[in-house]
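Minutes, structural biology subgroup

Action item carried over from last meeting: produce the structure token record for Coagulation factor XIII A chain (Ardeotis kori). EB confirmed the sequence was re-checked against the source entry. Recorded below for completeness.
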Amino acid sequence: MSETTNTNEEKKKPPLNGRRALPPNNSNDEENEVPEMEAFGLIPRGFNPKDYLCVVDIHMFKEPHEINKQQHHTDKYYSPKLIVRRGQPFQIQIDFNRPYKPETDRFWLEYLIGRYPQQNKGTYIPILIGDVLKPGEWGAKITHKENNSIRLSIMSSATCIVGKFRLYIAVWTPFGILRTQRNSAIDTYILFNPWCQQDAVYLDDEKEREEYVLNDVGIVFHGNINDLKVRSWSYGQFEENILDACLFLMDKAELELSGRGNPIKICRVASAVINSRDDNGVIAGSWDNTYTYGVPPSAWTGSVDILLEYYSSKQPVRYGQCWVFAGVFNTFLRCLGIPARLITNYSSAHDNNANLQLDFFLDDEGKLDTKITKDSVWNYHCWNEAWMTRPDLPVGFGGWQVVDGTPQETSDGMYRCGPASVQAIKHGHVCFPFDAPFVYAEVNSDIVYSRREKNGTQVIEKIDTTHIGQLIVTKEVGGDGMMEITEEYKFQEGSAEERLALETAVMYGVKKQTTQDTRYQPQMDVDMDFQMQKAVLGSDFKVTITFRNRSHNYYTATAYLSGNIVFYTGVTKMEFKKHTFSAQLKPSSSSPFDVVIKSSEYMSDLLDQASFHFFVTARINETGKILATQKAMVLEIPALRIKTKGEMVADKEMSVIVEFTNPLKQTLENVTLRLEGPGVLRTMKKEFRQIPANSTLTWELKCIPKRPGLRKLIASLNCNALRHVYGELNIQIQKP
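Output recorded by EB:
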């Protein structure tokens, strides 16, 4: 063969590497061409395909009210195509040009996915017609024959690839195989099946399946440990084009099609592709309070807009913070059929060297030294749990797995986290993949306050073993309340089991620095407590420091209060309040000290989530010992009010009214309102130039609800001076 012809050949073929016979098959979107006539040899001149069995029509029973979508719990998907769950039979009907004769006619089905279908990879699936269906294995049998039509019951494998398959019907003739034409209307989506016992994501409780797979709205718990706040989030996993957008994420992550039946692999690659770091994924994070050329994280009310924008632009959507990553990840998991829930961990450690301790360094005045303190405590951090078996781990570590799409630290060179078994984290068995030590540290770290003396030695002033991971919560099943799941992650604080789990974690290589106990001798007979008044954004409030002297000695203390405006990640933006005072501590008595904080001191620099962080350090002058405490606080942010007018019936126009009163002493400028409700209305946006102080804005809009039942409307308001303003309303849409 001469050189020239060779290069032409190479141009036609996709590039191969030395290890593969075929290029990687990692796009659900690409297709191969399938011949309609596959000849066995020379075809005689008199051959007429019409003489043989011919397919005239195929009925997929794919309407929401028909048998397939009803039985497979996929009737809510806003898609005209057939959507079924794996490992469970579904029905189709084939109309031929004449009655089917089983003695002489031979036909079979072919399901194909991707561009290079291969039988051993599960991307080309020929199905012969048999007499019985084996549970959880591919097969088909005839259930009904009438005139020229037959009814088939088809069973898919409980481990098959999840994605969009193309269907062909092949008929055998003596001269070759005749196939139906490519017809995208009969494409079939196959999803995970939590209702099927052989599926890796099988969940045995119907109420939990309704919540963790079928509920398209949820709750995000935020705020901080002293002031829990709640907002709704629209997952919208059944909305138009969302299923295709979720399948596209796996193409974007270049996950081989043959790996797409495995929920462990899917979660691992999805946790990387949800954030834009290192792979141009879905959401770009921003934690610095500047959101130029993008939507502030607090403005989003749900996942649909984000996923659809990414699906069409293929560029990261700006901007997200942890609950946005977790909300979109939850949509992705529920959409594919993997049971999932959104988790909030209050006082979450971001330990940047995984040594199970957060190092807070104080300078010689007892102030936090921000230059050398690298670790931080997030007021809260949201991640997800996905439900699946873990055949790759020893028995007992299946069930809920932590997956986290927020880019915090790299894992195997990429920003991703999980799946990590919750059970393994609780018992300290952090040697099992993936990323268990990092999650263990998020819920179990100690805070160590140390001070550098003039001669350079480090003195440990205080060790706080209970501040981190104080409360871990998720939305309750079947309601909007909070369900505490702290004990799923850790044993009772201070119990023997907790110590044992910690020792196990240390044995498995979670670094724990030993603190020389000789250096650390705290002041035992004086306690310091710190309390804050609840306060609404824009008002003055007071904080109270109380010393309790339990000894018979008379002490004096020099105390320093530092008030900081912080990001919800615990990173300080600036100190806005410094207050030093001295205190006389009489024997066996309590002494309270009040400090007033004026709105004029904090309003100009306040960040998104209206978070403060107070550090109080006090030196007992007689002993030189230091008392230290810290507390986070979140101001109350006013809410939006949502009302409806007129009757609420599916397919009939109704009115929604959103109202907001500006509580600040200033005019709000360039205000954006958003409103959405899955099944009721697509996200609507409206801009207002100004809302003067104390005045009320009203926005009325019309919509036509699509789905009857209990639905939720969710609204948000955003402007530079005020963010994280939300409102919601449950409404009952009647059947027409």
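Discussion: The chain has twelve helices and 40 strands.
Next step: EB to file the record with the rest of the batch.
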